[in-house]
Every structure is written in structure tokens, then in C-alpha cells.
TrEMBL record:
Molecular function per GO: metal ion binding; metalloendopeptidase activity
Keywords attached to this entry: Hydrolase, Metal-binding, Metalloprotease, Protease, Signal, TPR repeat, Zinc
Cofactor: Zn(2+)
Protein name stated in the entry: Peptidase M48 Ste24p
Signal peptide interval: 1-27
Gene3D superfamilies per the UniProt record, alphabetical: Metalloproteases ('zincins'), catalytic domain (3.30.2010.10), Tetratricopeptide repeat domain (1.25.40.10)
Alphabetized PANTHER family for the sequence: METALLOENDOPEPTIDASE OMA1 (PTHR22726), METALLOENDOPEPTIDASE OMA1, MITOCHONDRIAL (PTHR22726:SF1)
Domain Peptidase M48: start-end pairs: 36-226
């Protein structure tokens, strides 16, 4: 029983973190795209190594939010807002942000903040902690102000004092990680200069004790010495900048209006990133024939790139060219057999075709590598339903619902699946995890 409770709690916590949306979604949420995640992983890898963290365990997660923000909520994920990625100029600046957030993990700040919340003995202290979490995670100052209403000024200063110390510590540790990774520390100064320019009040009017971060001028003063002592020059890394330009270009092409991208990327530009951006924009207009023709040029230019093949599959699928989409996704899956999101795309394409043989197989392969994507589980539920396996359809649908926070829909589906699946089987245990997670969530309300 204890092991089952642990699994259910882990399931609930993971669901709370990983509420996923496809890249083309407009609502705020977590943006999933294999190309962008691979590119950011390439940038983050040297920083993780320099900090002594396992790159295989750490994940970079992109939040669809225009506010230039980044944060950590646990010891395995670094969250970057899309608005921040679209504002930074170089790969080194992205690596500077990641290094700062990683330093919060290695410095034990997450554990201390969790302990502070656990030990908070007054409503005022709890309100402050929650308001800080809301600001860090969403940038929503109005919500934070509502939560923190009634908190005394003295308590506020005590909490923010700890936060300022942590931020200063993370700056110093982060810049050391950058130097170890061969990333010029000057990039962290460039990021701070950007934020300094965005501060609404003049620094002479700001109360340094009423902020969750040290004043930018103080952070800059402290870090200039570290940067000056480094022997690394600010020479750009062509490979790192390529991957950042590619991730930023794709993100911008999906988020910004298509006309914006088409104005900024001339048709005469035949580079792979330019072709990719134009193809996405043309697809969104929509101009399907032009989009598919542009993608054909791109794939011919980079025939062994699995992520461009995956994008071609997405555009073909959403243009209702189902058989061609399956072909493109199969090629992508052959080039990157361990990429779960490509397997998910292949499963989606197979769902749209008339050939339903072994329908769940591709999606199950994806679930084995990334079992916490509600869109994947929703497609898997559909695949099982179409193949006549109703119990497995109910199970996957229940997991998809709980990931979206809908216990009301998840509970009866999980109970139905548990009743139909063999007691003690893997499927039965998964269904029980959903039931237990829902019961835990309902008790906490």
C-alpha cells in the first residue's frame, strides 16, 4: 500500500508540473516541440555538466508566456518563458539564464524554500510564500498581491531578505558554471543589462528591501569582477548560436502572426532556418501548397535531420495528407528512434489513416519514453478504442484527464478500467494510481 501511495503522489506531482500543450496552441501552458527541446538541451548540456548535474535527468521546459521570466520549481526542471527566449539575442545569454537557475538547484534554495513553506506558522508568512511562488511562476503580480494581502511589512522584509541572498548566490555560482562550460561570463552581464532597462521605476525610487531580487545595479557591480577575472572572451560559438537561432525561429514562427514572420524572412533566403520559418508561417496562413513545397526544399537540403522530417509530417497531417504524413513521420522515427514526440506524431498520423492494424503500437512506444503528455495519452485512448480494447482506452483517457486536473472525469474512467483489467496487472496498478491521486487531490481541497 505504501508503494502505491508513493506512486500516486508522484503521479499527482508530475501531473501538476507537466500540463502539456502542442506548440500551435495559443493558451498559456507548457509548449512541447522535439526540435526546440533538442536545441535547448544542446545549450544546457555544458551548463549541467559544469554544475555536476546529470543532463539526462534535467529537462528544459518552455512556458507559453510573453513575460521575460525563468524559474525552477523542483530539482529536475528549468522553466523558461517563451517571452524570454524571444528577447535574448545570443545562445550565451540563454546559457547564462540557465546557469543562474541551475545555481538555485545546486545551492539548495529549492529545498530551503520548501522547508520555509512547511514551517510557516502564520497566515501572513504562508501568504508571502505563496505570493512569491505566483510571481516566480506566472509573473502575475495582481494574483500575488491578493494572496499576500494582510501581510505585515516586517515579515515581508525578512522573506525578501532571504530571497535577495539566494539571488546573489545564484548569480555568483552561475557565472562560475558558465566559465567552466566555456561560455563567456559577459553574457550574464548582458542579460542583467536587459532587465535593468526594463525596470519601471528609477533605481533611486526603489526600496531595495521590498524586492524579491537584488537591484540590478547591485547584481551588475558584484558580477563585473567575476567577468573581468575570466580569461574567456566574448567570441560567439557558431554551433550554439545556430541551435538557438533555430529554436527561437521555430518558436517565433508558431507564436507570432504569420505575416510577421513572412515580412522578416525574405523568400530569397535559402538557409534551412529561413525555409523552416517560412514553411510554418505559410502553413498557418494557410497556404498549404506553398508550405508543403517549402518543406520539400527544406527536407532536400537537410535529408538526415529528424526534426525537419517531423515538421514535414506535422504540416502534411494538418493539411489532411494522411498517407504522406505517415511516410514523413516514419522517416523521422527512423532518424531519431528514441524521440517520444516523433513517435507520438507517427501514431497521430496512423490514427487518421484507414489502416488500423496494430494501431496503438507507435503510441505505446512513445508512452514508454514520455508517459506524461496528456495529448499523447488522449491519442492512445482513441487508438485503443478504435482497435476494440475498451479497458485500455478508458485507462489512457483517465490518465489524460488527471494530467489536465480533471479528477471528475478521470475517476470513473479509472474505476472502469480497473474493474475490467486483471487485478494486480500493470494496467490495474496504473488505474489505481489515478484513483489514489484523485482521492489525495480531493482531500486537499
Amino acid at each position: 500500500m505504501r508503494q502505491m501511495r508513493v506512486r500516486a503522489m508522484r503521479l499527482l506531482m508530475t501531473f501538476a508540473l507537466m500540463l502539456c500543450l502542442p506548440l500551435s496552441a495559443w493558451a498559456k501552458g507548457i509548449l512541447r516541440d522535439p526540435d526546440i527541446e533538442y536545441a535547448l538541451g544542446r545549450l544546457a548540456g555544458p551548463i549541467f555538466d559544469a554544475a555536476g548535474l546529470s543532463a539526462a535527468r534535467m529537462k528544459i521546459v518552455v512556458i507559453h508566456d510573453d513575460q521575460p521570466n525563468a524559474f525552477v520549481a523542483d530539482t529536475s526542471h528549468v522553466f523558461l518563458h517563451s517571452g524570454l527566449l524571444l528577447r535574448l539575442d545570443t545562445a550565451a545569454e540563454v546559457q547564462a539564464v540557465i546557469a543562474h537557475e541551475v545555481a538555485h538547484i545546486t545551492g539548495g534554495h529549492i529545498i530551503r524554500r520548501q522547508a520555509n513553506m512547511k514551517n510557516a506558522s502564520t497566515a501572513a508568512a504562508l501568504g508571502l510564500l505563496l505570493s512569491g511562488a505566483v510571481v516566480a511562476a506566472t509573473g502575475n503580480g495582481e494574483a500575488a498581491a491578493g494572496i499576500a494581502m494582510g501581510v505585515t511589512g516586517s515579515a515581508q522584509r525578512v522573506l525578501f531578505g532571504h530571497t535577495r541572498a539566494e539571488e546573489a548566490s545564484a548569480d555568483q555560482a552561475g557565472i562560475r558554471y558558465m566559465a567552466r562550460a566555456g561560455v563567456p561570463p559577459q553574457a550574464m552581464l548582458d542579460v542583467l543589462e536587459m532587465f535593468r532597462g526594463q525596470e519601471v521605476l528609477s533605481e533611486s525610487r526603489q526600496d531595495p528591501y521590498a524586492r524579491t531580487h537584488p537591484l540590478t545595479r547591485e547584481r551588475l557591480r558584484a558580477l563585473k569582477g567575476y567577468a573581468a577575472a575570466s580569461k574567456l572572451t566574448a567570441n560567439p560559438d557558431p554551433e550554439a548560436n545556430y541551435w538557438y537561432a533555430r529554436a527561437r525561429g521555430k518558436l517565433e514562427a508558431f507564436i507570432r502572426p504569420p505575416a510577421y514572420t513572412l515580412r522578416r524572412v525574405p523568400a530569397s533566403d535559402g538557409s534551412d532556418i529561413a525555409l523552416m520559418r517560412r514553411a510554418v508561417a505559410l502553413h498557418r496562413v494557410p497556404k498549404p501548397k506553398e508550405a508543403m513545397a517549402t518543406m520539400a526544399r527544406l527536407v532536400a537540403l537537410r535529408p538526415n535531420d529528424p526534426y525537419y522530417a517531423e515538421l514535414q509530417g506535422q504540416i502534411l497531417l494538418e493539411s489532411r495528407q494522411f498517407d504522406a504524413a505517415v511516410t514523413a513521420y516514419r522517416r523521422a522515427a527512423q532518424l531519431a528512434p528514441n524521440e517520444a514526440q516523433i513517435q507520438t506524431g507517427l501514431g497521430r498520423a496512423l490514427l487518421a489513416t484507414t489502416n488500423k492494424a496494430n494501431l496503438p503500437a507507435a503510441l505505446e512506444a512513445a508512452r514508454a519514453r514520455d508517459g506524461y503528455d496528456p495529448n499523447l495519452l488522449r491519442h492512445l485512448a482513441s487508438a485503443y478504442a478504435q482497435s476494440g480494447q475498451d479497458a485500455m482506452a478508458a485507462l489512457n483517457a483517465s490518465e489524460a484527464h488527471i494530467m489536465r486536473g480533471d479528477c471528475k472525469a478521470a475517476m470513473p474512467l479509472a474505476q472502469r478500467a480497473a474493474a475490467a483489467l486483471g487485478h494486480g496487472s500493470v494496467g490495474w496498478n496504473r488505474a489505481q494510481d489515478v484513483v489514489n491521486a484523485c482521492e489525495t487531490a480531493l482531500k486537499r481541497r
